């Protein structure tokens, strides 16, 4: 976890961040930087394609040898050789390391406040001191009863949304928060038990 996953995915917050994804290094040379495609795991054999909710993920695969001919890189030494059996074995381990992140980013939505607390309390660890294991360790939150949820999406003029923001007392709140607050208000005041 290079940083916590995003909490809210407003269109303005969906920029591609160049340093998230998988990095493949051969003898300390980066041959595949911040990859978020099927060349690593994203969108390959049952894995989801990269989505902005995975921002914060950074994985590194390091290949070292005294015989450079054994490395899974192309002849130019500037790209990974995806057909290399060594690289394919590494991808299997990368999948094992990636799966917990995908599950965590999905699960943390159920209790975002608790996830934030755990993420803030986690200490940082320099990369080369991280335990070399194909298993990613992420915060664990207790299972809670699942409530079926629905996404509501609608468009309104920005001037009206800004008026609602002002009425709610926070002119910089996200569109999502405006929608949740107005929905909660409607349920509280208009829906009978």
Features:
193 residues; alpha+beta; 2 domains; 3 strands
Number of strands: 3
Low-pLDDT segments, ≥5 res? none
SS class: alpha+beta
Which radius of gyration do the C-alpha atoms yield? Answer: 21 Å
Mean pLDDT: 84
Quote the distance from N terminus to C terminus: 43 Å
Overall morphology: elongated
Structure description:
It is built from 4 helices and 3 strands, in the order βββαααα. The chain has a 3-stranded mixed β-sheet, covered by helices on one side. Helix content is 31%, strand content 10%. The longest helix is centred in the middle third of the chain and has 23 residues, at 85-107. The chain starts with 20 loop residues before the first strand and ends with a helix. It has helices at 85-107, 112-121, 158-168, 175-190; strands at residues 21-26, 29-35, 58-63. With 193 residues, the chain is an alpha+beta fold. The protein folds into 2 domains: 11-129, no CATH class; 158-190, no CATH class.
Topology, pairings included?
Blueprint: E1 21-26, E2 29-35, E3 58-63, H1 85-107, H2 112-121, H3 158-168, H4 175-190
Parallel strand pairs: 1-3
Antiparallel strand pairs: 1-2
In short:
The protein has 4 helices and 3 strands; from the N terminus they run βββαααα.
């Amino acid at each position: 976890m290079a940083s916590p996953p995003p909490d809210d995915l407003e269109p303005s917050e969906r920029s591609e961040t160049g340093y998230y994804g998988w990095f493949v290094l051969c003898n300390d040379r980066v041959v595949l930087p911040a990859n978020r495609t099927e060349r690593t795991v994203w969108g390959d054999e049952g894995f989801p394609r990269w989505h902005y909710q995975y921002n914060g993920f950074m994985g590194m695969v390091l290949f070292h040898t005294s015989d450079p001919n054994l490395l899974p890189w192309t002849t130019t030494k500037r790209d990974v050789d995806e057909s290399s059996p060594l690289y394919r074995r590494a991808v299997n381990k990368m999948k094992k390391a990636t799966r917990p992140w995908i599950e965590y980013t999905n699960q943390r939505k159920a209790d975002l406040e608790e996830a934030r607390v755990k993420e803030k309390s986690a200490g940082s660890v320099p990369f080369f001191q991280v335990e070399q294991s194909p298993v990613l360790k992420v915060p664990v939150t207790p299972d809670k009863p699942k409530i079926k949820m629905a996404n509501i999406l609608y468009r309104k003029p920005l001037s009206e949304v800004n008026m609602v923001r002002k009425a709610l007392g926070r002119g910089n709140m996200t569109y999502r928060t405006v929608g949740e607050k107005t929905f909660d208000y409607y349920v509280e005041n208009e829906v009978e038990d």
